[in-house]
Amino acid sequence: MKLTKRVQLLVLYAVLPSLFSCSPSLQEPVKHFDLQAPKPFGYVIGDEIHHRIVVETRRNLILSKESIPAAGAVNRWLQLKSAKVSVQTASDVDKTELDLTYQVFYSPLEVKMLKIPGFTLRFKQFGQTIEQPVPDWHFTLSPLHELVIRKEADRIYLRPDAVPDQLNVQPFLDRLQLSLFGVLLSALYLAWRHRLLPGQSRRSAFKQASREIAALSSQEIDKALGVIHHALNALNDKPLFKQDLPLLYQRKPQFEAVAPELDWFFNFSSLYFFAGRHYVAEQDFTRLQQLCRRCRKLELETL
User: Fold this and answer.
1) Is the confidence at residue 240, as pLDDT, over 80?
2) What is the pLDDT of residues 100-131, one digit of tens each?
């Protein structure tokens, strides 16, 4: 019984190394290989063909530069224009990308099958060399013209390129028309809002103010002040403060005739709203009405 166990242990020790030797991580240094190539047909003389080779290997496998194809003539009709190598390192693999650009210089008389010859990439690690073959790549090359050249009026017959499909531009034109119509409506509304249309009277800031202040009593002094402030803001096209009065007189010099009244108005408004002076005499309300009427009269002179 003891002898049998010893035999089993000996067999196990003998089998374990062979199991580890069959491990994919040891037997497969190249984990992934991919030749990315374009369509294998439809080429003519002078065309360029781009190949990308992607190789994923174990860590620390170094690509031998001697195994990379050198730029130059591959054969009498094929030229390797460039060969670019990039290496990206991940946690468990190294990803090597090789970009090759070929150019063909062969003019067949008819469609012909050709091939870009393969080669072998070599990786080195710990003094060992690992090879990864790159297979041949077959493609067809077409002539520039027919084998039997036709002539018309002593000129070589050439076929034109295919006419591209016509795009339906009607939906775009419809949307463009709608957009332009919207822009036109917006422009008309702004012109009407600012009274710029022909036959439209110019905006009168104090016309509505005169009507509103005439309907107020001396007990509604706060409303009367608000009405005049609103009219002055409309006249100035923006909020008007006392320090802005000189600029208003430059733009509308006729209102300089009521400069003393406007100074009194802003002082009175500040006292009422910010200084707590809520006692208002009857003559103060009358003076506000007179100021509004004078501003209305100045407006009429410029319309």
Assistant:
1) yes
2) 999 999 989 889 999 999 999 999 988 889 99
Length of the chain: 303
Tokens of 239: 């909020």
Question: By 3-state DSSP, what share of the chain in percent is helix, strand and coil, each rounded to 5?
Answer: 45, 25, 30
What does each C-alpha distance from 203 to 86, 241, 296 come to in angstroms? 72, 21, 12
pTM: 0.44
Local confidence band at 162 (pLDDT 50, 70, 90 cut-offs): confident
The residues near 43 (Cβ < 8 Å, ≥ 6 apart) are 49, 104, 139, 140, 141, 142
> Which residues have CB under 8 Å from 157's CB, separation 6+?
149, 150, 151
Report the SS3 class of residue 193: helix
Q: List the domain boundaries for the chain.
A: 28-141, 205-302
Quote the CA–CA distance of 35 and 98 in Å, as a whole number.
10
The confidence score (pLDDT) of residue 279 equals 66
Structure confidence by residue, pLDDT tens digits, 260-292: 999 998 988 888 888 776 666 778 888 888 888
Please report, for residues 37, 84, 275, the alpha-carbon distance to residue 61 in angstroms, rounded to integers and kept in the order given: 25, 18, 87
Q: Options 3.30.1490, 2.60.40, 1.10.287, 1.20.1250; which CATH number does 28-141 get?
A: 2.60.40
Dist. CA 225–CA 267, nearest whole Å: 12
